[in-house]
Design a protein that fits this description.
By secondary structure, the protein is of the alpha/beta class. The chain has 18 helices and 17 strands. The longest helix has 21 residues.
Length: about 475
């Protein structure tokens, strides 16, 4: 098996042992715990409270849901428009949401991180982007060192778009690749030749984008170790600054389009574990730092530097270096975190548009965090981002003793220590280099909501490996 070539691989026995459904912890508490008791009224109150600290920066996420056609593996909130006018109508509503949000934030308007996700954000034309960016710049002030990033699909993204976005301050692009194997691409309805991706990467670098990232997925139909090794070899020739190596979440009951993928074509769990182990070894030996879970970055990348300094952050846009207490989510299904309150817009396009037109905000559900939520959020974030929980810092921030507050959880950490995944001492919990793959599993120990439910009643999460 090709996996044995790489000394930095994660043992397959551990991958199999800890492979189970679990949250990715882009939030704690996780989305399934949110309720419809949080709506527009609560969100407005959270924004008004946030406005009282005008010096604090903001992160902003904008969801652009449109795609020309659907990829079968996709789990994103996507709209396949029947006419071009659909995107114009959507943007008009989005402009109104931007204005309403900025009005309540008042002088709290400094952005340090802006990300466009989708869908396929580059579904928009240059002229549409021009108006959207003008609206954002009228409502907010961008920090001189702001990270402005966008997800792009090399199949539909033009040189003109990349050039224009760079001229407007965009400095990071993330490209979906998934797999370069043509058999796999056909099975997931995404034909994307290597040359197409390489051109997008090369031109982005020529234009001066500071970061060029790629996304890969393992566990897709017809994948095997030999074929995925070739994909990673090709990915390494592109030398991306960051790599996201996602596990395919096969959920055909809730994602009906995934029924186009036949279960018999999916790799068995042992093969899927070998795919990850091989990728981990190859990226590690190519000089990439394992940021955690399924993310890798070059040693000089901001993510690696921030993690080395214990300052890495995590939000719904993934790992980030920008310190911002509040995240504003804009657009259909957009998720935000404001004044210790999670909020999410309606996921259906029609509902989102109607709510904005009639009331100014489309908040559908959310959760106001209690003290226990905040304590556990701190613990999980420390483990997920910086691989260390300092018990003294926990004491200083929340006036609680780790050993007293988490006495029930402490015994459950024993197997992780025995397997070399964590190191427990009197003053800290540290995740080892081996353990970076299993931070979701370690974090699950501290998830009070997950622990309170029988396995059969838990939400349908992706698998941890």
């Amino acid at each position: 098996m090709a996996n044995t070539l790489y000394k930095n691989r994660v043992p397959i026995t551990l991958l199999q042992k800890y492979d189970r459904p679990g949250p990715r912890y882009t939030s704690y508490p996780t989305v399934p715990e949110w309720t419809e008791s949080v709506g527009p009224h609560q969100y407005k109150a959270a924004l008004q409270k946030a406005s009282q600290t005008p010096a604090e920066p903001l992160s902003v996420y904008v969801h652009l849901p449109f795609c020309e056609k659907r990829c079968y593996f996709c789990a994103c909130n996507v709209v396949i428009p029947t006419r071009k006018r659909n995107s114009d109508d959507y943007l008009e509503i989005l402009y109104r949401e931007i204005e309403n949000t900025a009005a309540l934030l008042g002088a709290r308007n400094k952005i340090v991180q802006l990300h466009f996700g989708g869908g396929t954000p580059t579904f928009l034309s240059v002229s549409q982007f021009a108006t959207l960016l003008d609206k954002l710049e009228c409502a907010f002030v961008f920090s001189a060192d702001a990270e402005i990033s966008i997800e792009v699909d090399p199949r539909v993204t033009t040189d003109e778009q990349l050039k224009y976005l760079r001229s407007r301050g965009f400095n990071r692009v993330s490209m979906g690749v998934q797999d370069f194997n043509p058999v796999v691409q056909k099975a997931i309805n995404r034909i994307q030749p290597y040359e197409q991706t390489k051109h997008c990467v090369d031109y982005s670098r020529e234009l001066g984008y500071a970061g060029v990232n790629i996304d890969l997925i393992y566990g897709l139909p017809h994948q095997n170790v030999a074929g995925f090794t070739e994909t990673i070899d090709k990915a390494l020739t592109l030398r991306p600054d960051r790599v996201a190596l996602y596990s395919f979440a096969y959920l055909p009951e809730s994602m009906k389009h995934q029924n186009f993928i036949k279960p018999i074509d999916l790799p068995e769990l042992e093969v899927k574990a070998a795919l990850f182990s091989t990728a981990h070894g190859m990226f590690s030996e190519a000089g990439y730092q394992h940021i955690g879970m399924d993310h890798f970055a070059l040693p000089g990348d901001e993510l690696s530097l921030a993690q080395n300094n214990g300052k890495l952050q995590r939000n719904f846009m993934g790992y980030t270096t920008k310190v911002s207490p509040d995240l504003i989510g804009l657009g259909v299904s957009g998720i935000g975190y404001v004044s210790d309150t999670f909020v999410q817009n309606h996921a259906k396009l029609e509902s989102y548009q109607e709510k904005i037109q009639n009331g100014g905000f489309a908040t559908h559900r959310g959760l106001k965090l209690a003290k226990d939520d905040l304590i556990r959020q701190f613990v999980i974030s420390s483990i997920m981002c910086n691989f260390k929980l300092d018990f003294q810092k926990l004491q200083e921030k929340f006036s609680v003793s780790f050993h007293d507050y988490f006495s029930a959880e402490f015994d459950q950490l024993g197997p992780f220590a025995a397997d070399g995944i964590i190191i427990l001492s009197d003053d800290s919990l540290c995740v080892t280099a081996l353990g970076r793959t299993f931070v979701r599993n370690v974090s699950m120990i501290f998830d009070a909501y997950l622990r309170s439910k029988p396995a059969a009643d838990r939400p349908a999460f992706s698998r941890t490996i």
